[in-house]
Design goal:
By secondary structure, this protein is an all-alpha fold. It has a single domain, classed as Malate Synthase G, Chain: A, Domain 4. The chain contains seven helices and no strands. α3 packs antiparallel against α4 and α3 crosses α6.
């Protein structure tokens, strides 16, 4: 039989919050609390990476297939830019990822995978023609 954390993470979280609020420190599940807090940061990083990849995917498609760059693709670009800005406003420490070359490479690879699934794009370079900050600019 597992722990409450293993059986029902929502009930576990509610229990841990109640223990925190009541100051029952010795009853806290410190290891799992620490893991959950770390996961929040990982989740935010994954969200940023995904949104950036979708943004860059659509920029790629518009660049290589301008004749197909219609309102739907442009709407996606605007929406992803807005959502990335919102993420960065709510979690400013994510901004350092935007300058990380490994993160930029991951975003580019993910975007290329997404773009080639949908568009006739086959001559993409190994590197993005844009910095991540440039992808957030309206022009």
């Amino acid at each position: 039989m597992g722990t409450l954390y293993d059986e029902d993470v929502i009930a576990w979280a509610e229990q841990q919050a109640a223990l925190l609020r009541s100051g029952q420190w010795s009853r806290l599940d410190i290891d799992n609390i620490a893991g959950e807090i770390e996961d929040v940061g990982k989740s935010e990083k994954r969200a940023l990476c995904h949104r950036m990849a979708v943004l860059v995917e659509h920029l790629i498609k518009c660049r290589y297939q301008p004749e197909r760059c219609g309102s739907s693709w442009l709407r996606t670009i605007r929406e992803q830019r807005a959502q990335v800005r919102k993420l960065l406003r709510h979690s400013p420490s994510l901004r350092k990822l935007m300058a990380d070359p490994d993160f930029a490479e991951e975003v580019w690879r993910d975007a290329v995978i997404l773009a080639v699934k949908e568009a006739a794009v086959d001559d993409l370079s190994e590197l993005s023609p844009w910095t991540l900050d440039e992808t957030l600019q309206e022009d």
